[in-house]
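Record type: ASSEMBLY
Status: queued
Input:
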Amino acid sequence: MGFDQYHEPPEELPAETRTFARLCASLEEESQAIGWYQQRLAVEPDPEARAIMEDAQGEEFKHFAMDLEFLLRKTPRWRQIAEGVLFQDGDIVEHGEAAEAESGEEGGGDGGAAAPSDGSLGIGSLKGEGK
Amino acid sequence: MNHLLRGHAPLSDGNWKLLDDEARERLRGALAARRLVDFSGPLGWEHSATDLGRTTPIGTAPCDGVVAAQRRVLPLAELRAEFSISLAEMRDDDRGAPDADLEQLDRAARQIAIAENVAVFHGWEGAAIGGIAEASPIEPRPLGESGEDYPRSVARAVEALRERGVEGPYGLALGPDEHLHAIETAEHGGYPLMDHLAKILCGGPIVWAPGVRGAVVLSLRGGDFLFESGQDLSIGYSHHDADSVHLYLEESFSFVVATPEAAAPLTS
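Status: finished
Output:
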């Protein structure tokens, strides 16, 4: 049994970081499956087999989107940058650079990982934490 | 820069980190409600109201032959606790002083945490927020004179929830005095009271809850108590003079009790 999604010793990581890492791993697996189905569809001539693969790939699209939404909800700065890039017309790279720059400007003070891009303290839910 | 205007404050990055870390530490210990109820958001400062999924009939429609209704929402409430920080203290922090005076920040953090706890557990009429304890149809019973009375009272509260089909796990919010009694008390044979209470709650949390009067036992199964955050707790900038920078802690939120019978209040 492997625990490859952890880059640091799991026992040293807080529970929310372990959950975050699991969803990152899941996101990676879904995108890999999407790519594999895309390749299979490119070479499969049987219409019935293609229909099954297209259906399966649709499932992976859904899983990928759910994983991504969870991660974005947990990471305000990532969410802010994604909002500047996703579903936008125009130059993708320009949108990305602009969104990244804007996210770094906000928050006043340190723009590090501990400071959410909305300038809040990032406390959120404490349910399930400590007694 | 957003509405918090943090970039206008005469504070270094290190000062901001000091203030944010201090506020976060103080708040996390005191925000009892967030340890026990469902939390959604933050949905942003621009988010103004919570959907209730209900309507109010409108007596007059634009024309005959149609009926009209208006959607009901719960507007988010804002809480703000102001405080000041000495600029001389911040300059000393820049020099590496390890003991900056942050007393006003600590006091503001405690006050806004108490305000949030009170709104969730006892309600806030001015903001149309009903509290968990007041909304419960379960008759409040006394927690007991001494800590040794607590297990029986809490067990009865858990039983009252089970009788209404409310499953666990269960949590217990204890007001500061009651929490002190609980941690001070060892029952006959030296068995810690907190361990006994945790067993009754099926391992659920026992939470120190400043602002709570008495105690509240509630289900943690989810879907019963809904806290919606607009802007999560943040430090913003108001103004400064030659000596001090004037800041504030602020948040916006709403709270809805979806299942009143999922909590049992206990009086002090």
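Annotation: The helical segments of chain A are 15-43, 47-74, 76-85, 92-105.
Annotation: Chain A has four helices and no strands.
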